[in-house]
């Protein structure tokens, strides 16, 4: 079995309530629609992970909740270290990814784009709710596909 990593940016969040701390911002209606749409595509392409690492923010947790109909019964870990993490923090969080199978990380930008670039040497735009599948062979990561809500 190969080792794969899905790097996902949270779905679109709301800025309606300026009294909320950034960490506590929920998804907006578009985000609530896009999360299940991406989950269905992940399932259709056979990317379903065995482990999901998710930022502790409200919008990332709600993104995961929105994908629950498809991505249920999967080991999930909420990690405060993913919230607005830079590249070094994300690499630290990924020390626990599966040696075989698929791990998913749901986080934020610019971290998602930086992580993809660092692992693969490729630059990919990660709008909200985008998910990129990378596969690893002999220590080399390759971007297999990027799913973006507007393109599926």
Short description:
The protein is of the alpha/beta class and 152 residues long. It contains four helices and six strands; from the N terminus they run βαβαβαβαββ. It has a six-stranded mixed sheet, with helices on both faces.
Report what the structure shows.
With 152 residues, the chain is an alpha/beta fold. It has a single domain (3-13, 25-151), classed as Rossmann fold (3-Layer(aba) Sandwich), CATH 3.40.50.1240. It has helices at 29-44, 58-66, 87-93, 111-120; strands spanning 3-9, 51-55, 75-79, 101-107, 131-137, 140-147. The two termini are 27 Å apart. The model has no long low-confidence stretch (mean pLDDT 96).
Task: Specify the biggest β-sheet.
Answer: 6 strands, mixed
Q: Could you say which overall geometry the principal axes of the C-alpha atoms support?
A: globular
Helix and strand run: EHEHEHEHEE
Distance between the termini: 27 Å
What is the CATH class designation? Alpha Beta
